[in-house]
Amino acid sequence: MRIAVDAMGGDRAPKVIVEGALAAAEAFPDVQLYLVGKPDEVRAFVDGELPERVTLVEADEVIGMEEHPAKALRRKPSSSIAVCGGLLREQKVDAIVSAGNTGAVIAASLFAARLLEGVHRPGIAVSFPCKGGGTSVLCDVGANINMKPVHYLQYAVMASAYSRDVLGVEKPRVGLLNIGTEESKGGSELRAVRGLLEEAAEAGLIHFVGAVEGNHIFEGEADVVVCDGFVGNTILKSAEGAARVVMEQLEGFLAQALSSGAAAALPADALTGSLRKLKEFTDYSTYGGAPLLGIDGCAIIAHGRSNARAIKHAIEVARDFAQRGVNEHIAQALGELSAKGVPS
Amino acid sequence: MRIAVDAMGGDRAPKVIVEGALAAAEAFPDVQLYLVGKPDEVRAFVDGELPERVTLVEADEVIGMEEHPAKALRRKPSSSIAVCGGLLREQKVDAIVSAGNTGAVIAASLFAARLLEGVHRPGIAVSFPCKGGGTSVLCDVGANINMKPVHYLQYAVMASAYSRDVLGVEKPRVGLLNIGTEESKGGSELRAVRGLLEEAAEAGLIHFVGAVEGNHIFEGEADVVVCDGFVGNTILKSAEGAARVVMEQLEGFLAQALSSGAAAALPADALTGSLRKLKEFTDYSTYGGAPLLGIDGCAIIAHGRSNARAIKHAIEVARDFAQRGVNEHIAQALGELSAKGVPS
C-alpha cells in the first residue's frame, strides 16, 4: 500500500505530520509512505535517516490554508498538495493524505482521479464519536452545496460502504438529516430524497432508518447520516465549537475551585487522566481522516488542527480504505441500484 | 406586565412550570402571571393558596409534543397552548411563555397576533453561551425553511433589536452564517444576502461583520448570527447533542477513575461544584426563552427539557421583551430601512 502524505499541510506542519507519518510507518508494516514537502523542513524533524519505508518527495511550494483553492493550485504546480495529486494521477501511490487547504486537496484529487462510474458528485464523509462509543459518519460536509435528491442517495450508498469496510459496521443504519422526525418536515426536496432512500432500502442496498435530527448524530441513532454540504459543514464546525467551549468552561471552573483552596486535596491523577481522555474525545482531530468519497482513488482529508496521532490515524484510514475495496463496493452497489431501476 | 404561562407544556410539566412561575412571581414584583392548565394538576404543585399575582386559568386539554401543530390546535381549542394564544389575541396578556409543542406555539402565536408592519416572516431567535461569557443569538432556528435574501436582512434587524434591548449588547455585531469566510463561498443566494446586509450596514441600521462559520457562534465572533431555519435548527440540536456527549463522557471517565481506587482522594466539593456549573452551562435549557421575532406581541418558546430555572428565565425574557419595546424598535428600524431605500 503506497500512500503520499502532504508534509506541509495543517496548522502544525511539518512537525506533527512527520511525527505522525513516522509513527504510521512503524505501526503499519504493509505501508510505503511518500512524505511530500520541503526537504530541509521535513528532515529537521527526523532523527538521523528516514526509515526504509518512508521516502522523501520534494515539493518546493506550500498552499496556505486561506488561499483560493483552484487559483493556488494553478499558481503553485510544485506545491506539496499538487505533487501529492500528481503521484495519485500517475498511480505511483494508492492514496493521498493531507491536513492542508481542504478545497485545494479536493481540487487536486478531482484533477488526479476520475469519478467512479455512475457517481455524480464527490462527498466528504466525516466521522463523529457518539454516545455509547460508536462512530457515526456524516456525508456531505462541504464538497457539495448544490444538492439534488439523487446525490443524497449516492452519499448514502457510498458512506454505507465506507462505514462497513473501514469502520466495521456490519449493516450501517442510514438516516436522513431533517429538522423533525415527522414525515412532513423538511420541504419537498427532502420528501423526494426520502422516496429515493426508501426505494434503495426496498431494493436491499441500504438500511434506511428514516429522519434523524442534529442531536441524533451524537446519540448513535444512525451509523450514516446524509445531508447537504452546507448543513454538514455547519454541523461539523458547530459541534466542534460547542465541545471546545464546554472543555474551556470545565477548565475554568476547575481552576477556580483550585484557587479557592481545594488544591491540596485534588487527586491529580484521577482528574487529569479523565480530563486528558475527555480532551482526546472532544478533539475531533484525533478522529482525523475524512475520505473524499466518489473518486476512483483515495484521498483522505485530515483536520487542519491535526496532531501526530490524527495524522497516523488518517494514514490508517487511507490504508484500510484502499486495501478493503471501498471503491469496488461503491461501484458494485451503484450498479445494482441502476440494475434494479432505482433512479441513481 | 401580564404574562400567560402554559403550565402543561414541556417534558416535566406541570411540576417545573409551576415551580418556575412561582419563583418568577416572587422575583419580579412588576409581573402578573396567568398559569394556564388543568386546575387540579397545577394545584398539586402549589403549597396552599396561589400568590396574589398568580392567577389560574383553566385549560382542559393538552397538546402533546409530537402532535401535528396545526391539526392539534384545531382539534383542541381548549388546550393550554390555544388558551394562551387566546389571552394574547384578546390582549388580556402582553406575552405568552410555553415549553410545549414548538410548532403549536408558533401557530397559536401567529393566530393571536399579526406580523409587525413590514415583516415578511417570523423567526425564532435562540441564545447560545459563548467563550468568554457572552451570549450569541442565532436566528432563525426553525420557523422558516424557505428563506429569501430579504428574510435574512429582517432577521438581522430583529435579532439586533433583541440583543440590544434584552441582552444588553450596545452595538450587536451581525454575522452571516457561511461555510467559509471568503466572500466567494456559499453560492449566489448568500452573495445576495451579503449585499443586502452591507447596504443595511452602510445605512447605519445594523453592524455587519461579515461571514461567520459554525464554530464562531460559540467563540463569540458575533452577537447575532443569521441563517436559514433548517440550518439553524440543525445547529441548535447538534450543539446540544455534542455538549451532552461530552458531559456523559466526562462522567464516565470520572466514574472509572473513582472505581479504580482514587475515590478516597477525590475533593468532592471542588469537583462536583465544577461539574454542576458545567452542567448548568451546557444545559441550554437554562438559557430558556427564545422569542418568536416579528409578531405584534410577545411569544417566548422555552425548551421542551426546561427545568424550573429555565421557565423562570423565560418569564424574565418575556417581561424584558415586552417592557423594553423590542417590537417598537424593530418597527422603527424596518421603517428606516425602507425610507433609506434598502430593499426590505
Please tell me about this protein's structure.
With 344 residues, chain A is an alpha/beta fold. Chain A has two domains: 112 residues, 3-Layer(aba) Sandwich (Isopropylmalate Dehydrogenase); 184 residues, Isopropylmalate Dehydrogenase (3-Layer(aba) Sandwich). The first copy, chain A, has twelve helices and eleven strands. Chain A has an eleven-stranded mixed sheet, sandwiched between helices. Chains A and B meet through α8, α9 and α10 of A and α8, α9 and α10 of B.
Concise account of the structure shown:
The structure is a homodimer of 344-residue chains. Chain A has helices spanning 15-27, 39-43, 69-75, 80-89, 102-112, 149-165, 187-202, 214-218, 229-262, 268-282, 308-323, 326-339, and strands spanning 2-6, 32-37, 54-58, 95-98, 123-129, 135-139, 173-177, 207-212, 224-226, 290-293, 299-301.
